Amino acid sequence: MQPEDLKALYITELQEACSFEAQFSEALPRFAEKAANTALRDYLSEEMAVAQKHGEQICGLLEVHDVKDEDHTDGSMQAILREAQDWAEAIASPAVRDAALIASLQRMLHYAMAVRGSLASWSGQLELEDKHIFESAVEEARRADARLTEIGQGLVNRDAA
Prior knowledge:
Elements: H1 6-34, H2 38-64, H3 75-90, H4 94-125, H5 131-160
């Protein structure tokens, strides 16, 4: 589908967001299994509930806009997740693997912030009530990113060196 106006672009990107939220939620338990650092494992366990909430909220907006949740896969998140999984499988050193997981998780969060930020802006322009959902999700992603930075700079990166 080629979006003809901002509303159509918004809906198309909303479908992308629903897809990446589902992919992210499905990947977190696998990453938690691979994490060696306790703080990173704890973060991933907590993030599972947050990711589930975001997925429900964002995918729920498709219903609000009377749009079918079509079989759509966000290719960008799929590529980021594939690389993260490859690293998690290939790196033998637990500390180096944790550093790679943190980098991959931050990559995912930054991508999610970019998409959610665009959706917040567009929903505001379109005068939709959806805006607060995306703004809240962006803020939570910023906090998660900061926490991952703290975990990495705390022990993980030092242990990986």
